[in-house]
Amino acid sequence: MIYSLHYFFDWILEIMTTDTRLFHYVIRLDKKDSAFFYFQLEANEGLCFYSTLPFNPHEQFRDIDLKGDLKLQTQVEHILAQMEKKFPIHYKTYEVLSF
Fold first, then answer.
1. Beta pairing partners, 65
2. Residue ranges of E strands in the chain
3. With 88 labelled, which of 11, 61, 78, 96 sits at a CA distance of 20 to 30 A?
4. Helix (H, G, I), strand (E, B) or coil at 96
């Protein structure tokens, strides 16, 4: 019993000392560029979670919600910077979420 409690407390301590913050972006890009943008995110699987925010089908833009581990933010920002060389990306939101 004491043996398993030792591992339990180690596990709790690890959770408490682990950085649980996420980066959060909401970006806007032209509808015509969104498929290529999604392709790039898929090609770099595991860097972030993303979803398209609700939109009117006649709108010519897409708002995309991006969230990921703060440790991977530099890699995601690199992808965003490379995409900005091909088409404009408008940043609507940037924040760090804590849990």
1. 26, 51
2. 22-30, 49-52, 61-69, 90-97
3. 96
4. strand
